[in-house]
């Protein structure tokens, strides 16, 4: 995408953040941005990897979750703030995405977002340049890695930042963490365990997910770290409405379905990479 278009989508996202508690739909945002609905839908989806409708819904539910965890606002008031006309409608969508009712979520008191406010790189490099920059993470990269999590949180339901930080320090110390940067901006990260053959974290900035970077991480890990042993990941189960495309991406990379699991209270599925994997297109 042309850099000017990226700037335009960044402006659209800024508009969404300012008006998150107001009437927001494709028509309203398109009129504010002076685009046709079709053009904005196509441009936004291509740049962000999800539709504008899904982005707005996930941002609003994340803000609703914050109110549930940190305020005593009535559920109906939170539902209205999130753009729903009834508590019942809000509860149905919230449970589909968070796997618990708003009341259950409030009782647990642990906030995590479905979607953080998005940041785009307005001056991206060519994908091959980014892939060449994949390297082991160092201690000095940890703050950027933790900030990067907010851009890929859609792929990691129930991610506990404190727990992840503790494990990340160990990954870095043992040279089991890789990252990719586009100039100074972190756009990809992977943490893995050669002992278990498991990729514990693989996150690609949504703006870069269509450019083969996940495949490059996987190729590096498979050939240099796991040495032809079985590779596994866990991701969303089939049909999970919270999935923004991670499951399909792993399937395109050659992963096959394995057992159903529950991790950190969330229903997931283990996927296994076939042992004869030779790399595939990420298109």
Main β-sheet, spatial strand arrangement: 1-2-3-4
Low-confidence stretches: none
Mean pLDDT: 92
Question: Oligomeric form of this entry?
Answer: single chain
How many β strands by DSSP? 7
Principal-axis shape equals globular
Q: What does the main sheet amount to?
A: 4 strands, antiparallel
- Range of strand content: 15-25%
Radius of gyration: 19 Å
Number of helices: 12
Q: What is the SS-derived class?
A: alpha+beta
Proportion of helical residues: 40-55%
Distance between the termini: 15 Å
Which sequence of SSEs, written as H and E, runs from N to C? HHHHHHHHEHHEEEHEHEE
Tell me what you see in this structure.
The chain is of the alpha+beta class. Helix content is 47%, strand content 17%. The protein is built from 12 helices and 7 strands. The strands form 2 sheets. A 4-stranded antiparallel sheet has the order 1-2-3-4. A 3-stranded antiparallel sheet has the order 5-7-6. A hairpin with a 2-residue loop joins strand 2 and strand 3. Helix 5 crosses helix 6. The radius of gyration is 19 Å and the shape is globular. It starts with a helix and ends in a 10-residue tail after the last strand. The model has no long low-confidence stretch (mean pLDDT 92).
Which features would summarize this protein structure in a list?
single chain, 283 residues, 3-stranded antiparallel sheet, 47% helix, 17% strand
Describe the secondary structure blueprint for this structure.
Elements lengths: L2 H16 L7 H8 L3 H12 L3 H19 L4 H7 L5 H12 L3 H7 L18 H6 L2 E2 L5 H11 L8 H13 L3 E6 L2 E9 L4 E7 L8 H14 L4 E6 L9 H7 L2 E9 L2 E8 L10
Antiparallel strand pairs: 1-2, 2-3, 3-4, 5-7, 6-7
Helix pairs in contact: 4-5, 4-7, 5-6
